[in-house]
Amino acid sequence: MMRKVGMEASFAIAEAVKLADADVVAAYPITPQTHIVERLAELVANGELDADYMPVESEHSAMSACLGASAVGARTFTATAGQGLELMHEVLYVASSLRLPIVMTVANRALSGPLNVWGDHSDAMATRDCGWIQMFAENAQQVFDLVLCAFRIAEDQAVLFPTMVHIDGFHVSHVIESLSLLEPEVVNKFLPKYQPPYALNPDKPLTMGAFAAPDLYTETKKPQDVALRASKEVIIQVWREFGELTGRHYSPVETHRADDAETLLLTMGSFGETATVAVDNLRNKGQKIGLMKLRLWRPFPFDEFREVATRVKLLIVLDRALSFGGPSGPVCSELQAALYPLEVRPKIISFVGGLGGRDISVETFENMIHRGLDRAERKEFGEFEMIEVRE
Amino acid sequence: MMESQVISAASLLGTKEYLAPGHRACLGCGEALAARLVCKALGEEVIIVNATGCLEIISSQLPYTSWEVPWIHTLFENTAAVASGIEAGMKVLKRKERYEGKAKVVAMAGDGGTADIGVQALSGAFERGHNFLYVCYDNEAYMNTGIQRSSATPFGASTTTSPAGKVSMGQATWKKNMPAIAAAHGIPYVATACPSYPFDLITKVRKAIAIEGPSYIHILAVCPTGWRAPADSTIELGRLAVETGIFPLYEVEAGKYTLNFDFPELRPVEDYLKRQGRFRHLSPEMVSKIQERVNSEYAELKRKATVSKASIRYYIIEDKCPGCGLCVNACPREAIIAMGKKKPVVLDEAKCIKCGACYDACRLGAIGVE
Predict the structure, then answer these.
(1) Which residues of A touch B129 (CB under 8 A)?
(2) Can you count the helices (H) and strands (E) in chain B?
(3) Which of B64, B77, B124 is closest, CB to CB, to A56?
(4) How confident is the model over A151-196, as pLDDT tens digits?
(5) Kind and range of the H or E element at B204?
(6) Does the predicted model carry a pTM greater than 0.90?
(7) Which residue of A has its CA nearest to B62?
(8) Is the ipTM of this complex over 0.90?
(9) Would you call B74 and A64 a contact, using CB atoms and an 8 Å cutoff?
(10) Is B70's CB within 8 Å of A23's CB?
(11) Handedness of CA A281, A282, A286, A292 (dihedral sign)
(12) Which CATH architecture has domain B312-369?
């Protein structure tokens, strides 16, 4: 059923899209997403993927072409990063409001200026309110799995939301790793052909994208929000099914050595792997520290997060993006908002780091945890602190 | 030629409306009129992609729609990209036997959505060679948002963002030549049209959708509201735009220009300008400047138009003509005179502008052409 290979994460994504038998791929090249779309173009050119590869003239048009293709019922994929995601921004809202199950991988990249092609989460955070499902993968295996799951989730008749699978630019996208691929028969069973409930076709004319005045706009937005929140159950169900099929299990909130922890470090994306080593090192020294990773970012997994977070006294949160002039990193401020209504809640220390591709080593994580514990001891909760910055 | 007669006869267009009445267009809206005719020419086998703008706003408001054909609106500047995605999606799904039908994808946008904010997406879609028709309804400003200037606003026009004032004469730049930009992509078919010439417009739409690959029709959509003109002057202003040479009707097929309506002598631009409040402030010097520009652009177009219908001649085949009068009604220049029942009509060649409206209207093949 499974085939173990050594493969670059970008190629693993292309492999997943091939196995999903996507119909249309519309994309514009941008570092560090390029290897994904180059590989897809190659698969189409070699007849290994029967899709229409649209080399569009911008990311705005990439996402717009995806809207069109998905609106006629095509399984549609694209990939982008950083500025590209920003250029798509307004189109993203339309994709989710039209309930078009487009799947996109984002090789997360910092935003200009200054220009920087390396990874951080500024682009992902800028799109958190677009109404897409957003999930984060840490390595090649996870992104291969999550892209396949993303098609299944997005196209579920109870969901019908576009879905982003995030990977960290370069730190994941360009890394060659060992992973298990799935056989086409297995994928075909897990992911049947997309059956759109509505499609543009003269057989049954319909109007898509009529405008709404103040008397109805709110009535279109409420059900959209309700449906996005409800999609969490389908996401969990699909991941459970995928786990039974492959032995690889995913959850909205994942933990490492959290059971008897008093302090939890929280990360999203590839730094979770480095953080795991740091947590293990500190555990070996007797510190009751664990790791929490947010796999699902939208819909935000309130229940799952609260369930784990309320077990500890302190959360140390690492954000890879800035909210200029804001309360903390964007992830941390959401966690604070999620915990605020609770009577008993952990204290939070907020760090921002890993911007523009700056690596965070195991040692830095350990120092960050020490620093967090130290600050908590002295009750210096305050605003966020930026790690390893020259001033 | 027989084919063009069949497809263009008004009576064969049918009574079915695809852009249903009851929409919210202004009185005398040339765009709604043009869209109605375009849709009638397109028929049912179509998917329409509409940019944000007047047409979208007048025809769609939740929970209502004026559209009897599949229709999608997403954003302002991405219409050609959405259309290309639809075309690509249909193509691959048909190949995989998951989609049936032969619907033509037709994108529609205003001049702002085409020549300004949408020009990049349009250029990309032309370059990629998608099989679709793009129709630009050019009302020469951002009418939907309140008459702000666009790059298609003509020189001298006063708009809300190019107002005529004590030190300004209105729009200070010349109208962007969007059909030439479309033609520069080397696409198979580019045409200009105007609902004041309905047979010509319908023929061009039919021709465009029959072509494999991208095609572009640039329609002058008279906007009485924005042009500060009476609502009942729409058709007349469209004719004046053509007869003054300000908006010539022509086609570019595989790079070859055809002037569809040629005039031995153009009417003075003043006849057109003086009817519209947006040009009210123009001095005689400004008017002559516009006249000079039109003269030179028209001469340039005629130089390029190697095949002009002006070189052809229409005549009445008397033994086929029962004097039914269809051509008399169709003629825009009163060049055909009815001689009474069962008597062949007479064509006054001095008045004939070779538009072919009579040829298109006649159902009996009684109009000859040489």
Answers:
(1) none
(2) 14, 17
(3) B124
(4) 999 999 999 999 999 999 999 999 999 999 999 999 999 999 999 9
(5) helix B198-210
(6) yes
(7) A212
(8) yes
(9) yes
(10) no
(11) negative
(12) 2-Layer Sandwich (3.30)
